[in-house]
Amino acid sequence: xxxxxxxxxxxxxxxxxxxxxxxxxxxxxxxxxxxxxxxxxxxxxxxxxxxxxxxxxxxxxxxxxxxxxxxxxxxxxxxxxxxxxxxxxxxxxxxxxxxxxxxxxxxxxxxxxxxxxxxxxxxxxxxxxxxxxxxxxxxxxxxxxxxxxxxxxxxxxxxxxxxxxxxxxxxxxxxxxxxxxxxxxxxxxxxxxxxxxxxxxxxxxxxxxxxxxxxxxxxxxxxxxxxxxxxxxxxxxxxxxxxxxxxxxxxxxxxxxxxxxxxxxxxxxxxxxxxxxxxxxxx
Length: 283
Description:
disordered N terminus; 18-stranded antiparallel beta barrel; Porin; 1 helix; mainly beta; signal; 19 strands; YD repeat-containing protein
């Protein structure tokens, strides 16, 4: 199951072409018969789900299963945000344009270019005063091997991501940030079924090679994610923070909810923090 999610993630990089990190593993860029999906995030208070959703995310799909709209609402009483994204495709169902709005105002427009294999090779973010681009390179097997971010119209490089693959999948992702001259490595471990067991994130320039944080995964008998844990091990202001994500599923294997607990340190007991509840509508 995680192998499929990982493959879907690599496809989604080529599909959306602007992700800064590994994104939301529950996000679905293409889904058969799915008309919409909504995730509502509720806080816990005194051990119980409390009030109305503080975050609501929704995805809409056309009859071909292509993502057409994404809406993000956040309202925690102190801060309100509403974002929207619209997606447009050509006759071959290739994404050619995305529009990104904030409070109904168009912030950015994205355009996409492809090679003869329908792999996304370039994404350009068009802003009001300038543009920036992402360039994608692939190996002979079609695996994404390099992403270059050019942050202005002059083509100055801001960041390079290099992907190294092994027989199980992605082995190491190395990110070089030109603004801070910093290098980060994402190191992956797999089990015999190609499920990702963990991802460790390191700052390479750190002389002691400290692990900044680790994502670890557990699976049920069907190969579905049962629990994900994140531990911030060497990050200023977050050192020792510990999060767990417990998954429940519907009869059709769709995610029903994710219960999120946290603690200020791994020595402390996890406490209820938030829960994400999923809703689906099908054609």
